[in-house]
């Protein structure tokens, strides 16, 4: 959801974005969203015994931090950010890393709590992220005025909700 929200924001912020830039967003976000849980899974598998008892706390802390940061940044004036930071490869990679850090925590959690085939999981994550970001390109263009003030807030709230869900499931499940 955070990559989706950033895609919408980018399209609204950079209205003159060319087709190469528009295509690069979903692909880059999808790749990072797929790679980060894989990295987290590998790290989690290496340190499973040390991380198992605190993984839910780690996920809650990271996702809450990212959610709050996303909400705060969304509340700031978007037009000023667009003028100050031109859309380029550096910005795209920074956004891709920032929006996929939570996926790293998810990968750690998967390694210590869920027996699954990680390659299938990260492939699904990458493809779904790409698909959602392609939809975000359309939404950002068509409904940009409506979502301009709320996309980041919604994305941040989703991150916090996911963190809370992981935390609650640990104690309830």
Describe it for me?
This protein has one domain (2-172). It contains nine helices and no strands. It has helices at residues 2-13, 19-46, 48-51, 55-75, 78-84, 89-113, 118-142, 144-147, 151-172. The chain starts with a helix and ends with a helix.
Task: List key phrases describing it.
173 residues, mainly alpha, 86% helix
- What is the total domain count? 1
Q: What is the tally of helical segments? A: 9
Structural class: mainly alpha
The average pLDDT score comes to 78
Question: Span between N and C termini?
Answer: 24 Å
What proportion of the residues is helical, as a percent range? Answer: over 70%
The beta-strand count equals 0
Strand content: under 5%
User: Which blocks of ≥5 consecutive residues have pLDDT under 50?
Assistant: none
Topology:
Elements lengths: L1 H12 L5 H28 L1 H4 L3 H21 L2 H7 L4 H25 L4 H25 L1 H4 L3 H22 L1
Helix pairs in contact: 1-7, 1-9, 2-6, 2-7, 4-6, 4-9
In short:
With 173 residues, the protein is mainly α.
């Amino acid at each position: 959801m955070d990559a989706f929200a950033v895609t919408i924001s980018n399209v609204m912020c950079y209205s003159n974005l060319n087709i190469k830039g528009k295509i690069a967003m979903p692909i880059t976000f999808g790749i990072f969203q797929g790679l980060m849980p894989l990295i987290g899974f590998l790290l989690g598998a290496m340190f499973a015994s040390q991380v198992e008892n605190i993984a839910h706390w780690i996920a809650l802390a990271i996702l809450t931090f990212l959610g709050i940061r996303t909400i705060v940044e969304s509340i700031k004036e978007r037009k000023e950010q667009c003028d100050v930071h031109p859309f380029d490869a550096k910005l795209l990679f920074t956004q891709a890393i920032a929006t996929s850090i939570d996926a790293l925590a998810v990968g750690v959690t998967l390694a210590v709590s869920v027996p699954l085939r990680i390659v299938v999981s990260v492939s699904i994550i990458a493809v779904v992220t790409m698909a959602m970001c392609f939809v975000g390109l359309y939404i950002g263009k068509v409904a940009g005025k409506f979502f301009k003030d709320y996309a980041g807030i919604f994305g941040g709230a989703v991150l916090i909700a996911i963190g809370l869900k992981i935390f609650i499931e640990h104690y309830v499940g």
